[in-house]
């Protein structure tokens, strides 16, 4: 059995179930966030994407979709406009909804596993 298997095409074949340790997938450059990404799953219609991400950028973004994220390394500080400022560390998780504006600052070793959900195809990752 392979160490990990991604399903970037959204196949529903039983042999295409994605699995593996978060950092064992195929990684590619992710320059928008000064890091790398590994897409674990992308639905056939593109409205759901799961992946692992290593990021080091400081940025502000308005969410074009919902995101659930689980921190696997380092830390990230988030300031939700009109809401709280908090720091997430290894083992912490967060759910942002479409339309929220968030300022981010993260450690050089920050990594996460995230799932993005939208009503349109996800183009963020």
Automatic annotation (TrEMBL):
SUPFAM superfamilies: RmlC-like cupins (SSF51182). Residues 1-12 have a biased composition (Polar residues). It comes from the Eukaryota. Residues 60-107 form the (S)-ureidoglycine aminohydrolase cupin domain. InterPro entries: RmlC-like_jellyroll (IPR014710), RmlC_Cupin_sf (IPR011051), UGlyAH_Cupin_dom (IPR008579). Residues 1-20 are annotated as: Disordered. Gene3D superfamilies: Jelly Rolls. This is Cupin, RmlC-type. It comes from Penicillium digitatum.
